[in-house]
Amino acid sequence: MDILSVIVGTLFVAIIVNIFLKQFHISSIVGYIFTGTLIGYFMGFSKMAQNELSRIAEFGIVFLMFTIGLEFSLHHLRQMKKEVFVFGGLQVLVVSSVFGFISNHFFGIDVKTSIILGAALSLSSTAIVLKILNETGDIHRPYGRNSVGILIFQDLAVIPILIMITIFTDKSASLEDLVLDTIVSGAIVLAILYFMGRFTLEKLLALVVDSKSEELFIGTILLLVLSSALLAHLFGFSYSLGAFIAGMLIAETKYKYQIEADLVPFRDILLGLFFITVGMQVNIHYVIEHFSSIVALTVGILFFKLILIFGLVSLFTIPKRAFKTALTLAQVGEFSFAVLALAASSHLLSNEIHQIMLSSIIISLIFTSIALKYVRQFSDIFFIKKSELLEEPIVSAEISNHIIVCGYSLLGQKIVKKLKQDNITYVAIEHDRNHIKRGQDIGDIVFFGNAASKTMLNSVWIKNAIAVIIAIDNDEKVRLITEAIKSIDTNIEVIVKISHQAQIDDLIDLDVKIFVNENEIVANELIKKATTCSLPN
Q: CA-to-CA distance for 186 and 178, rounded, in angstroms?
């Protein structure tokens, strides 16, 4: 079966399964995993076809890590050093130690395998957690901040874990040489990406934006992501680490929101494919035969991990926040598949243990993809007291009671000036770099982006906005922006500047109620001025 047939068959089954599951409000992630299991069992894709899909699917994690990097510039990472290095470091160390001890002393597994299992189980799912936290908006909440900080450390910890497996496998491998090579390679990668980002990135993006070509802009971003991933891979690191660093560098620029909006479709499609390949690895006959053992093991992993993370985070924050963080990270992550696969291929893990762990991890992912959407409801059952507000946001704290201004040309600039004079919170969105530069020079809050993008609008907390003012002359763009706003929430008030009746007729089906007719205002003002004049003496 050729690769195109594989892709067509996979997409068809994925769409049908997800349409069915959406009727029961079940996450699409679960649908993708079920899709992989079904096509792996019934369509019998060859090992080669599965490998082809796995290679493509790996870039779902690459794009995910890039968008995570966009959320965490170097400045914000320094702000989050406690969550990343203290919370994350303790979580990986304690959880891996406890699970390693249990594997060795209670299940009789040898020491090396126990250490690998403990390390694999300490990891959580960056893909699922980040996707759902972004969807719910909880990534900007305190427990979301804690969760993301720990996930960042876990992703960084994958590198030493893989090095550890190499040491266990290769008797002749020198620990000192491996560590030194890793440090040197890491320093080279960081130096190249940092200097490229500092001295060429802003200029390159400015040239692309000035071309006013949307496809060229998207193509440039894809080039930046993939070339950064390739650079990291050439020096022995994962593709995703290079993409993460590139995202952090771009986060320092004014283009980050539009970049994120443009990449979301690529990321989500490839992430879906990643979870399909995860489902393909399930041996249905083995799961049925050992179903009770797999379920019991999964429950045990979730319970112990929940208790351990809750205990650790409780040392630094209030219990309710610690519980939400623990519930968010109780599952086992997608990078664990890579750790276990390497261990199995290196004969450090038996096929039986590998298969039972694989099945347990998938069940934990399914549980989490459902439970995460109700994490606040779960926490309210055990903790009545509300959590305190976030003191320092990750990127920008959740804002409300603000006005969004779409367009920052001369009219938009005058609107923003008036809002500032009246002390009204605002955010402006503009796609022309020259206008943005002017706004930044005088201290206005102006973001580069496409105001017709729902991702862009959600980035500026449109659901919390008092109203949206569309200060753009292009009728087609006004229509697209209004459609995007109303698709997010039909109750959002939209105020549109018009010059003729036809514009009202064009927007009537979108339930826009507030129009400001510039010709009427000018006419009234002219008449008012004229009537105050008097005949010359």
A: 12
Task: Tell whether pTM > 0.70.
Answer: no
Nearest-CA neighbor of 360 among 305, 303, 415, 293?
293
Angle, helices 3-22/47-71, rounded to nearest 10 degrees:
60
pLDDT average, residue stretch 168-181: 68
Does this chain's domain 3-382 share its CATH topology with 403-531? no
Residue 447, phi then psi, degrees to nearest 5: -110, 140
Q: How far is CA 107 from CA 78, 117, 253, 289, in A?
A: 41, 12, 51, 20
Quickly list H helices, 407-488. Answer: 410-421, 433-441, 454-459, 475-488
DSSP letter for each residue of 313-373:
HHTTS-HHHHHHHHHHT-S--THHHHHHHHHHHTTSS-HHHHHHHHHHHHHHHHHHHHHGG
The per-residue pLDDT for range 59-83, each reduced to its tens digit, is: 777 777 777 777 666 666 677 788 8
Between CA 501 and CA 439 the distance in angstroms is 32
| Domain extent listing, the chain | 3-382, 403-531
Q: Are strands 446-448 and 426-430 parallel, antiparallel or unpaired?
A: parallel
- Closest by Cα among 532, 525, 494 to 510: 494
Residue 233: CB atoms within 10 A of its CB come to 16
Which residues contact residue 410 at a Cβ distance below 8 angstroms, ignoring those fewer than 6 apart? Answer: none
Is domain 403-531 in CATH 3.30.420.40, yes or no? no
The class that CATH gives domain 3-382 is: mainly alpha
Exposure string of 377-391, with b = 16+ CB inside 10 Å and e = fewer, is eebeeebeeebeeee
Q: Are 167 and 173 in contact (CB under 8 A)?
A: yes
